[in-house]
Amino acid sequence: MPKVSKRLKELLAKVEDRPYEPLEALNLLKETATAKFPESAEAHIRLGIDPKYTDQQLRTTVALPKGTGQDVRVAVIARGEKVAEATSAGANLAGSEELIEDIAKGMMDFDLLIATPDMMPQVAKLGRVLGPRGLMPSPKGGTVTFDLPQAIAEFKAGKLEFRADRTGIVHVMFGKAGFSAQDLLVNLKALQETVDRNRPSGAKGRYWRTIYVSSTMGPSIQVDVNALRDLKLEAA
């Protein structure tokens, strides 16, 4: 078994083995974020789905109202005047075949890749490089589009793509531990509503199994699923 550090042991002692009310859980997340760098706030949601069936897959985007707390580096693969349009809309990198070649050679100076539909046949060749990193553009993820200014603005403002892994668990970063607990709650609620809204058609029985939150280096804290789903937030 991996050795548990003294810091983590002390933090684990603060977490009780029970589901917490959402705001209580987020206050505890902030209290246990004691690493020497700005930690992210993460949610780990176990769903009652089996993603090996196409009608039980979950892949979508969430717009986090309070943002991600990260500077998202966006790359765009387009052609002609769309390249200049992407640059003026705030893309960190934009290009056509030459950018595809750079990525094929291992250049990964971006967090998100957007492509126009006409470039997708060429982008498809990058599947082996982009797929394992979760960077392959997809229409479902909002990253295959001709409306580059809108897509770039949304992703830079706090839109995130997420998907359920092979075991039916969704792992999503929903802000920074340095956010206020209330801002984290607003983002977590938006995430919960998105997961519910995009329930796969083949999902049978109980959809939500468990949800845990944690900071990057902190202990997992269980959140009361029903309390989160029943929560009504007043519009900020």
Describe this structure in words.
It is a single chain. Helix 2 packs across helix 8 (181-197). The protein is α/β, with parallel strands linked by helices. It is globular. It has helices at 6-12, 22-31, 81-88, 97-104, 120-123, 127-130, 148-157, 181-197, 225-230, and strands at 40-47, 59-63, 74-77, 93-95, 112-115, 159-163, 169-176, 208-215, 221-223. Strand 8 and strand 9 (221-223) form a beta hairpin.
Beta strand count: 9
Helical stretch tally? 9
Mean pLDDT: 93
The percent range for strand residues is 15-25%
* Overall shape: globular
Topology (elements, then pairings):
Blueprint: H1 6-12, H2 22-31, E1 40-47, E2 59-63, E3 74-77, H3 81-88, E4 93-95, H4 97-104, E5 112-115, H5 120-123, H6 127-130, H7 148-157, E6 159-163, E7 169-176, H8 181-197, E8 208-215, E9 221-223, H9 225-230
Parallel strand pairs: 3-4, 3-5
Antiparallel strand pairs: 1-7, 1-8, 2-6, 8-9
Task: Please outline what is shown here.
One of its GO terms (cellular component) is large ribosomal subunit. By secondary structure, this protein is α/β, with parallel strands linked by helices.
Which features characterize this protein?
alpha/beta; four-stranded antiparallel β-sheet; three-stranded parallel β-sheet; 9 strands
